[in-house]
Design brief:
By secondary structure, the chain is mostly helical. It has a 3-stranded antiparallel β-sheet. α10 runs antiparallel to α11 and α14 runs parallel beside α17. The longest helix is centred in the middle third of the chain and has 27 residues. It is globular, with a radius of gyration of 23 Å. The structure holds acetyl coenzyme *A. The site of acetyl coenzyme *A has 16 residues, from loops.
Amino acid sequence: GYDIGKLLATTGDTTYDNGFANTAVCKSAITYIDGDAGVLQYRGYPIEQLAEKSTFLETSYLVLYGELPTQTELDEFTQKISRHMVIDERLRELFRIFPRRSHPMPVLSAAITALSTFSTDTIGFDAERVDAATHRLMAKLPTLAAYSFKNSLGSPTLWPDYSLSYIENFLRMSFGTVTEQYEFDDEVTRALDVLLILHADHEQNCSTSTVRLVGSSQANLYASVSAGVHALSGPLHGGANQAVLEMLASIRDDGISVADYMGRVKDKKDTTKLMGFGHRIYKNYDPRAAIIKKHADSILGKREGSDQLLDIALELEEAALNDDYFVERKLYPNVDFYTGLIYQAMGFPVDMFTVLFALGRLPGWIAQWREMVNDPTNKIGRPRQIYVGETERAYVPMDRR
Ligand code: ACO
């Protein structure tokens, strides 16, 4: 019932921009996206080249520091991270207080907040402290993520193993047991490495904007990242990979044909969507989806039952790419269309999918926070509003309401 035009006219220079769809809130030199052309670059390097040639730690260094590291720089960075993988025994105890089967996302966020109480580098914004916090978070997030997972299973946790790579160490802490040696599969390790590279940054998405907004009040890096984890947890953001998997499983289990499902999506009689399709920025194939699809074949072949879901996904994609409804609206597969299938084939339950997204997005969150605190022109984030409430009225005593 409100006349937005009239309200705007009375709100001075304030611009109404629902969902910040047209507002640039910062200048950033980290990630470049051309949504029409399907281009994604970190610090100028195309995502395709990084996914093929780089590792997650090397890409993290690039995202954080702006340049690809030399071998010496990468070795030093890796060492600094390995050194901090263990968490304080009292922090480890924290996981015991959560109910068994707790969702690992809130547990992860709580653990990051708790971590800040163990770190002296939470105070101050000088380069040395910020670097120390960067290394600690990069090192400890896989440990906290694996412990959140173990807690959700009710299983005992393992200590990190420094002799392993970043990804191997996380896989072992997630799937290893106290009594049995964890057998690595190089294809799985590399696929997870690539998936994390693909998630490393995506400019001003909801969780990254949250990290920046919280940090803009000069809240420390741990507090800002912990808030980012919460923002990521929502189904419209990091939770979409789970929705895709549920859609594929329901098509399989209910025996619906792909044509019937597509018909239901298009007639719009209910809210059924082709999950994992469409994107606010990409009006072309999401370049990350194209890379993931290549890995899906090799990983999914390894697990019973997953092939069937992949076949349905491929059939849906084929149908959508040849359908006027999707072509006219420029709806293409996004990053989430295939990730859930791969995570499931790796052995992760649906609850862990968004935690894996958080592991991948961490260097982006930290890099964006660092970029912001190092910008002397940065201001506290404080959006305006269009007030649509009551006009002034007199207080009504209780006996007259
Ligand atoms: N299935 C069917 N129709 C769709 C889909 C879809 N997945 N996505 C968009 N459309 C239709 C809309 O109904 C709308 O149709 P209309 O013109 O007839 O009204 C048109 O395409 C434009 O879509 P909008 O919703 O206006 O686009 P917006 O940019 O606001 O939304 C979003 C983007 C949220 C990603 C949307 O495409 C969607 O809901 N996709 C499914 C969920 C999903 O996969 N999310 C993950 C995104 S990637 C990430 O966050 C990591």
